[in-house]
Amino acid sequence: MATRIRPSNKRCAVIGGSGFLGRHLVERLVDRGYAVAVFDIRQTYELPGVNFYQGDLCDKHALLTALKDVSIVFHCASPAPASDDRALFQRVNIDGTRTVIQACHEAGVQKLVLTSSASVVFEGSDIKNAKEDLPYAKRPIDYYTETKIQQEKLVLEACSKEMDFFTIAIRPHGIFGPRDPQLVPILVDAARRGKMKFIIGDGSNLVDFTYVENVVHGHILAAERLKADSPLCAQAYHITNDEPVRFWDFMSQILVGLGYSAPRYHLPYMLVYGIALLLWLIAFIMRPLVQIKPTFTPMRVALAGTHHYYSCARAKQDMGYQPVVPLKEAIARTVESYPHLRKGA
Ligand SMILES: NC(=O)c1ccc[n+]([C@@H]2O[C@H](COP(=O)([O-])OP(=O)(O)OC[C@H]3O[C@@H](n4cnc5c(N)ncnc54)[C@H](O)[C@@H]3O)[C@@H](O)[C@H]2O)c1
Ligand SMILES: CC(C)CCC[C@@H](C)[C@H]1CC[C@H]2C3=C(CC[C@]12C)[C@@]1(C)CC[C@H](O)[C@@H](C(=O)O)[C@@H]1CC3
């Protein structure tokens, strides 16, 4: 019988490696001596020790070229949540993830680490210190969440000792840090248009915001500890900063750090949520004629006005996870990294 030659366990691929999280992950993997293949629909940078493969993850043949001799695959590609495009989410997050799993089998990959999201259990109501055994959202709040649930199920179900193929899902929440294209830029854009004067609700809701380097640390620990008979197989893990913070205090610290005023006036949560739903409906109806992108989407309002923080005790116990950058330091580094978004810049 022919012996299957095992790829080096220092060879990995990052699908979505040109994105915010993906690039931070690639940089840290290179620091740790991994040879990295980046697979993405776009190339946004160059780095010694990294090979880029430009392609769509729904294209198995393109993927197979990038996965040659790779033992670990990190899958952190997804359409942006704000795109709100059902067909795109279905194609990339569900059909595409099936293709990724198939390509991993054909290429002899041993480990697949999926970047899922803590939002897979979020339905718009309070979540306080939830563990991973909370059921998936029955009524997901948007297409992004709906397809992240399906994607996570597909990856965890693919874990197979017989096939020598091990899978795990990392569920980060509210990732922020240098080069993030979402949180800080959207916040600053809203502030520049005078829309950040208001606090939605009473402002006491606690939330997890997780510094990108902590999320990267969780991914690498997961990949290195995942093996046959380890408790990590086919499991999902929350990775957070382990320092829940008031949503509006966090936003205020970023805004004030960049020279803008902190929100001050309170608006009732249900009123703002109702308006956001109405705007979403209008945008939906008008879509064939004109693209409207409301700042206050129902998802954003729900995230801004409810508690949503998660326990990372399981990651601490099973993989020895501890956040490496505390929240205060993380906010300072983030503010520092956006000189072009400072007031008056
Ligand atoms: N940003 C957050 O707060 C957050 C929180 C929890 C989970 N996540 C998850 O983390 C992952 C990374 O998110 P991010 O914030 O870095 O997003 P990002 O948009 O910066 O990166 C995603 C990358 O995926 C690539 N991509 C999209 N469709 C592709 C396709 N069909 N084929 C190949 N590449 C494709 C994009 O080009 C991009 O480079 C996503 O899976 C997201 O669901 C993000
Ligand atoms: C206009 C204001 C009310 C809010 C401005 C800031 C928001 C743009 C961010 C605050 C919380 C962020 C967040 C996400 C996107 C950007 C915010 C809404 C996610 C929905 C992105 C996708 C991730 O999977 C979610 C997760 O589970 O971590 C994020 C949750 C927080």
UniProtKB/TrEMBL annotation:
> What InterPro entries does the database record attribute to this sequence?
3Beta_OHSteriod_DH/Estase, Lipid_A_modif_metabolic_enz, NAD(P)-bd_dom_sf
Could you tell me one molecular function GO term of this UniProt entry? 3-beta-hydroxysteroid dehydrogenase [NAD(P)+]/C4-decarboxylase activity
A Gene Ontology biological process noted in the UniProt record is:
cholesterol biosynthetic process
Topology in the lipid bilayer is annotated as: Single-pass membrane protein
User: Which species is listed as the source?
Assistant: Triplophysa rosa (Cave loach)
Reactions it catalyzes: 4alpha-carboxy-4beta-methyl-5alpha-cholest-8-en-3beta-ol + NADP(+) = 4alpha-methyl-5alpha-cholest-8-en-3-one + CO2 + NADPH; a 3beta-hydroxysteroid-4alpha-carboxylate + NAD(+) = a 3-oxosteroid + CO2 + NADH; 4alpha-carboxyzymosterol + NAD(+) = zymosterone + CO2 + NADH; a 3beta-hydroxysteroid-4alpha-carboxylate + NADP(+) = a 3-oxosteroid + CO2 + NADPH
Q: A single Pfam family, by name?
A: 3Beta_HSD
Transmembrane feature ranges? 270-290
Question: What pathway is this protein a component of?
Answer: Steroid biosynthesis; zymosterol biosynthesis; zymosterol from lanosterol: step 4/6
Q: Which domain of life is it from?
A: Eukaryota
Localization of this protein: Endoplasmic reticulum membrane; Lipid droplet
User: Member of which family?
Assistant: Belongs to the 3-beta-HSD family.
Question: According to its UniProt record, where is this protein mainly located?
Answer: endoplasmic reticulum
Keyword Methyltransferase in the entry? The reply is no
Which class of enzymes does this protein belong to?
oxidoreductase
Q: How does it assemble?
A: Homodimer.
GO cellular component terms, semicolon-separated = endoplasmic reticulum membrane; lipid droplet
Enzyme Commission number(s) from the entry:
1.1.1.170
Q: What is the protein name stated in its UniProt record?
A: Sterol-4-alpha-carboxylate 3-dehydrogenase, decarboxylating
Key words of the record? Acetylation, Cholesterol biosynthesis, Cholesterol metabolism, Endoplasmic reticulum, Lipid biosynthesis, Lipid droplet, Lipid metabolism, Membrane, NAD, Oxidoreductase, Steroid biosynthesis, Steroid metabolism, Sterol biosynthesis, Sterol metabolism, Transmembrane, Transmembrane helix
> Which segments constitute the 3-beta hydroxysteroid dehydrogenase/isomerase domain?
13-267
Does the record bear rRNA-binding in its keywords? no
